[in-house]
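protien #1 (seq + structre)
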Amino acid sequence: MSQEFDYIVVGAGSAGGLLAEKLSRSGKHTVLVLEGGGTHKRFLIEMPAGWGKMLYDKNFSWGNESEPEEWAGGRRLKLPRGKALGGSSSINGLLYVRGHKLDYQDWVDAGCPGWGWDDMLPHFTQTEDQKVLKNKFHGTGGALTAAAQPFAHTTSAAMVQAAVQAGHKPTDDFNNGEPDGAGFWQVNIENGKRSSVAVRAIEPAMKRSNFTAITHALVHKVVIENGRATGVKYQVKGGAVVEAKAKREVLVCAGAFNSPQILMLSGVGPAEHLKEMGITVVQDAPGVGQNLQDHVTVPMCWTVKDKPQSLNSSFRGLAALGPVFEYLFKKKGPLTIPATDFAAYFKSSPDQRMNDIQVFGTPISGDAYAMEADGKEGIEPDAVPGLTMGACQVRPHSRGWIKLRSANPADPVRIKMNYLQDERDRTAFLNAMRKLRDIAAQPALAGIIQEESRPGKAVQTDEQLLEWTKKYITSVHHAVGTVKMGAADDPMAVLTPDLKVKGVAGLRVVDASIMPNLPSGNTNAPAVAIASKAADMILADAK
C-alpha cells in the first residue's frame, strides 16, 4: 500500500470521520484516516442502550480518568472516549443537541470571525438527517440522524408535564438556536439502531478508491520538517512503526484529550513542559492543553410507587431477558432508549443572559457511587423502582488542563478538570438542584413519586448539598477547548480561525478541542458541524 496521501486525518471520530468523508467525496483527493480503535460493527455499539455498558469498558473506550478532583471529594472521575470507528459517536448517549446561538457569537467575540450561529447553521443543516421537524433550522440527508425517540416512557412524559406545571414552556425543538423549556430530546437512532458517523459517513466513504481507513493505529507524532507537517508516524497492530506522507495537510481530529497529546508529542506545546518530557520543541504553543472545559452533573433520584413507572426492573436479573428478546427480534422496547429522554433548559438565576442549565431525565435510578466503592464501574439500577433527573451548568467558568504523563504515546495524558472550582459554577449548580426539586413536587410527578432517595429530604443547606455532591458528581463527557482557535495576537490561541496551527504549515486541528468555549449542550453535533466547515476551508485552499 502506498504511504503517500493528499490528506492524513488522525482520528476517525465524530469530527474526523465526517471530515475525511467530505474531503474524499469528489474523488480528487486521496485521504488516509488513522483510528486507534477497531470496528464499530459490534452489538453493544449498534444497540442504543449499549452506551451504558461501553462507557467504562476498555474494549470500547480509552479509559481516561481525571486527577483527584477537589469538588468530587478527591475522586478520580472516569472520562470515557470512543475507541472505534466513529469515535465517541459510537458509544455516546445518542442525543442530537446544538447549543445556543450566543455560544457561537462568543466564538466570534473571542477572535474567530466566521464562526457565528449564522455561519454554523448551514453546517448543522447539511450534516443533519431530520426525521420530524421541517423548518429553516433543519435539514435532511446528513450524517447525523435527528429522530424522535423510539421508546418514550410514561414517566418521562410526566417529567415534561411537571416541568410545564413548574413554569417551563413545552417545546419540540431544542435546536433552533435558543433552547428553552421542556420536552424530549431528539436522538441518533434509526430503525432501532444507533446511527453514528461510522454508519452514516465512514461506511459510505470506505467504498471509494481514494479513501483508506486503518484501525488499531496508534499515532506517535506528526512529522514536522522545516516548519511544515509532512506526515505522521504511527504504530500498526503487531508493533511496527510506519510513516505516512501527506502531500497537502495533516489534520488532527483526536479530540479534546488526544489532540493536545499528539501536538505535544510532535513538539508543539508549552516549551517548558515539553522539555520536562524530553521532547524537542518545534513550536512553543503555551495554549496546548489549557482551557479545558466540560459539563458536569449530579444525578438526583426519586423512588416511585409502582414498577411500571420505572425501567429499573427491565435491566435487572431475569426480568432483563424480556427487553433483550424484544430488541433482538423486533428492534423495539427499553433497549432502544438513549442515555436520557426528558429534556429541559432554564436559567439558574434571572440575571443570566441565556439558559445556563440543561436537564437530563430518565425513568431509571441507580447508585454509581456504591458501585465505585465496590470497585465496579457503571450504574446498576436500584432494586426499587425510581427515576433520575440531573442538571448541568452548560456554560461553566471553571477551567482545567491536560499534560503529558510521559513521551510514550501509549501513556494516557494527565487530566485536571477542576470541576466547580469557580464559585459561580457552584452557585448555579445549587440553584439548579433546587429547581429540580420544584419540578418533582408538581402534581404530574408528585402523584407517582414516593420519596426523594438521593440526596434525600434531610440534605437541604448549601453546605449539605455540596458535600453530598462531592460523592456523586460525574462528567457528562463533553470535554472541549484544549487546542482553541482565536485571534492572531492571542498567545493562548493555538489555532487561527481557519484551524491552522500557528507556526506550523500544513497542520490543522479539527474537533471539539478547537472551541474557545463550551456550547450550551452536547458536543457531538457541534463537532460534526465544525468538521463540515473545516472541510470547506481545506478544499477552498486546495484550489
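ok now protien #2
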Amino acid sequence: MTHPRCVLVVLAILGHLWAAAPVSTAEEPRRPALAACKEPEMPAGALCGVYEVYENRSTRAGRKIPLHIVVLPANGPDRVPDPFVYFAGGPGEASVPWGLFWSEQLIRLRSKRDVLLIDLRGTGRSGQLACPELRGEQSIQGFLDNFLPADKVGACRDRLKKEVDLSWYTTDAAVDDVEEVRIALGYGPLNLMGSSYGTRAVLTYLRRHPRSVRTATMDGVLPPDVKFLLTMPQNTQKALDGVIAECEGEPACRGAFPKLREEAAAVLHRATTQPVRVELTDPETGQTQELRLTHAAVAQTLRYMLYTPIDAVRVPLEIHLAAQGDWKPLALSARFNSGLGGSAEGLYQSVTCAEDVAPIRDEEIAAAAAGTFLGDFRIRRQKAACEGWPVRDLGPDVQAPAVSDVPSLLISGERDPATPASNGAQAARTLKRARLLVVPDGAHSLDGMKGAGCIPDLIDSFVQAGAAEGLDTSCVDRIQRPELPLSFGDPEVTVARADLEKLPGSYVNQERGVTARVDLLGSRLRFGIGEGPRHLLIPTSPTRFRVEGLPIGHRVSFQVIEGRATEVTLSQPGRPDLVMIRKADSTSLKMEP
C-alpha cells in the first residue's frame, strides 16, 4: 500500500514486562545474541542478531522463522528503557532499511533511546516470501493489465506452500513476534511508529498488547475496520479530482491546460476503446520495449502517480500530452510505477487475502466502484489472485477498531489516494489521546514538498514528551506541494557522440559512501547509483541532462575540464545536490546494445 531509502551499549537495563496478552506458554523467550553488524551499510555501533519464532504461534511447534534484528544503541548518557520501533508498509516491505532511514530523521530521539528494528515474518531477511514470478521487465505489462496475474501468483503460491504455512503470515502473528522479542530483550513499553500498512501493525499491537506501548505514531493510517479495497476507487477519484481542481485554480496551469477534465476523460476513453502502443528503450538492455496502455494500465499509472506529490503534480501535464497524442511520458510513468517494488509479494498476498479480501462481499463492490475512473478493477483482480491462497479464520477482531488511551500521533495527507485523512479521523475516534495532523496537499508520502522536514521534528518531540497535548504543530500548515509543471523543462538537444564520450566513468562521494556509474548504451548516456536501477539521460546541453522516467527536477550535470569530466552532480527536488568526484583510475565505459 506504499512507494524511500535508507540508518545500540549493552541491553542490560530491564523494563517491566507489561504485556497484556502473554506471547509464550511453557517455553520462555530466550535472549538473542547480538553482535556488531558486518554489513557495510549499517551505521557505526549497530548490533545485529537473529531471534527464532514459531511459524505457527498457536501450536508453538514445527517450523521456525529466523527474525532479523538490528539494534542501534542510544548514543547519550541518559538511556531510557523504551525503544523506538518502526513498522514498514506494503505489506511486504522490510522494516530494517526503512527504520534505518527514519532513525536518521529522528536524530534527537537517539540520544536517549535505542532503536529496535525487526524485519517482520516473511519480509526482508526474516524468511522473505518473494515471488520472482512477478518480477522483471517482462512482468510490467502483466502488472498494468492485471495487477496480480493469476497464473504467476498461482505459481508462486504452489512453490511457497511446499515449504511454509502461508496462512500464518498475517499482522496478528507478526506483532506477537515483536512482543516476544521485546520481552526477550528486556525492554519496557515501546514507542511504535508505522507507515501505511505499518500503521495497521501499530493498531493491531495496541489492541493485542496495550500495556506494551508507550507512544504510537502513524503516518498514512490504515485502520483495521476500514475495508481498504472497497474504499480505493472513491479515494483515488477524490485524489485525481483534487489535482485537477488545483490546476483549474491556478491561472498558469488553467491557461496551459484549459480543458483538463475533458482531456482526462478522453485519455481514459481512448485507452479503453483502442489501447495505445508506445515504444520505450529498456535502460538495462538497450532493446526496444513495447508498452500497451489499456484502460487498466492508465488508471493504475494515474493512481500510483497520485501517491507522491512530486509525481502527482505531473498528472495534468502528462494527461494533456497524451490527449494531444504524445503518450510517451505517461508510458514512462507506467513503467516506473509498475510492480510491488521488489517487496515480499508472497507476504503481501497472505496479509491482503486474509485481512482485506476475505471480508468483502460481492454485493458491496458495485456501489464502491460507481462513478470512478478506477472502477472495480483492483477489487476484482485481488479477489481473483486470492483464489486458492491459504488463509485461516482470523475471527471478528481482525476488523475491530483499536481502543486505547496510549498517546497517539496520526499524520494524513489531504490528497492521499490510499490512506486518506478520513482514515486518520476514523482511527482517532477510539484512540482517546490521539492528535490527527492533516498535511495540506499531502499525498501518501510527502516527497517533494517544501517544509516537510517539520514532520520528523514533530514526531521526535512527541516521542520525547510522551504526549501529543501541547505539541506545536503550526509548521504543518506551512508545508507546500511542488509547483504544477507546464513542461518538462529545458528541451532536448542533440549532442555529438564525441562530447558524450568524455563523460562515462565512475564517480564517488566519499563522505556519503555513494558511487555513480555512467556509461554509454548505444548512442545514449546511462546513469545509476550503486546497485540501484539505471536510467537513460536526456541531454539539454552537452553537459546537462534530464533523467528519463524520474520526476521533473531530477538532473545530472557534469563538470568538464580540459576535455575530461571531473565530477558529476545529481540534483533531486527537495534534497541537497549530491556531488561525486570522478575516480582517478576510471576509464570510459561503453556498452553497446
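Residues 228-249 form the longest helix (22 residues).
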